[in-house]
Amino acid sequence: MTTPDRLYSSHQPRFSVAPMMEWTDRHCRAFHRQLSRHALLYTEMVTTGAVIHGDREHLLGFSDLEHPIACQLGGSDPKDMAASARIVADFGYDEVNINVGCPSDRVQSGRFGACLMQEPALVAACVSAMKDAVDIPVTVKCRIGVDDQDPEEALDRMADAVFGAGSDALWVHARKAWLKGLSPKENRDIPPLDYNRVVRLKDRFPDKFIGLNGGLQTLDQAKPFLEVLDGLMFGRAAYQTPQILGDVDHRFYGEGEGEVAPWQAVNAHMTYLEDQLRKGVKLAHMTRHMLGLFHGRPGARSWRRILTVDAIKPSAGLEVVKRALAAVSPETPSAEAAE
């Protein structure tokens, strides 16, 4: 397990894959771990009610290979957040994170997510209660503001509150969320990104960990931000083109001689796939997270087609993945042009 002092050390950058509903489940994280040993991986958001009263093994279970791993909680009752944080820590997670960024109607009705940008004191109370309950890092992921809030004032108030309560890090999605009038999907693109707002926040808190999230597409685009900020969090780009993760350890952590090639990651992942198949997990539940791996490479269309069509068959096993890999393997290059 990664120790708290190393997880947010000021001496090394932190690269992470954002929590994404219906995407960053345990099978996605296990696959991403084959591409990067060091990237911090997040669960999908889980609510305090589900953690306290639901099937905890189903919601929180993960493989040891997924470390370092953080669990994101949705909730706003300090007592429930503390109880959930204890459960998360007991499961062996390396960090627990508070969702102050999701704009969906369902999340708003539960009084958590982005609507909490309007209640920084309540978020701070949750941080304080969680810090008292666990020894692992407690962090917050927020927006720069919501609706008609002034991002200068709103983000400063949130940062003042959560750092004052002891938050170990603040990850900032650098765009507003519109709680009324825009869908969650529209909220990912329509409000303009404001990376400079996050940089200005770091100027106010030079000794606190502040990471950047929102719209990051390539490592070349993102790396200059590490000159002034402490971490980078990739979302859709890491999921849809996971080969990005293959260069993270080399470029950001000085490990290895170069990037992890996509086909190397697939071969390394075979052991996990085989183990899960023996446990009754359907192949398609795992390979759906791998579809974008060869994006832009010859054979990518065949890779996607084989995994999409054949992995859903009742008897689908590793032979499906091996056949898909043969379509893009450097040992047997395909003449098919990538899309």
Describe what this molecule looks like in 3D.
The chain has two domains: 4-253, Aldolase class I (TIM Barrel); 262-326, Four Helix Bundle (Hemerythrin (Met), subunit A) (Up-down Bundle), CATH 1.20.120. It contains 16 helices and nine strands. The chain has helices at 4-7, 26-35, 48-53, 56-60, 78-90, 105-109, 120-133, 151-164, 195-204, 219-222, 236-240, 248-253, 262-278, 283-287, 300-310, 318-326, and strands spanning 14-17, 40-42, 46-47, 69-74, 95-100, 138-143, 169-173, 210-213, 231-234. An eight-stranded parallel β-barrel has the order 1-2-4-5-6-7-8-9, surrounded by five helices. Helix 10 links the parallel strand 8 (210-213) and strand 9 (231-234). It is globular, with a radius of gyration of 20 Å.
CATH architectural label of the largest domain: Alpha-Beta Barrel
Shape: globular
Radius of gyration in whole Å, from Cα?
20 Å
Count the E strands.
Answer: 9
The assembly state of the depicted protein chains is: single chain
Structural class: alpha/beta
Largest sheet entry? 8 strands, parallel, barrel
CATH domain class name of the largest domain: Alpha Beta
CATH superfamily of the largest domain: Aldolase class I
State the low-pLDDT regions, or none.
Answer: 1-5, 332-339
Number of helices: 16
Report the order of strands and helices.
Answer: HEHEEHHEHEHHEHEHEHEHHHHHH
In CATH terms, what is the fold-level topology of the largest domain? TIM Barrel
Q: Can you give the helix content as a percent range? A: 40-55%
User: What fraction of the residues are assigned to beta strands by DSSP?
Assistant: 5-15%
Q: Could you give the order of strands across the largest sheet?
A: 1-2-4-5-6-7-8-9
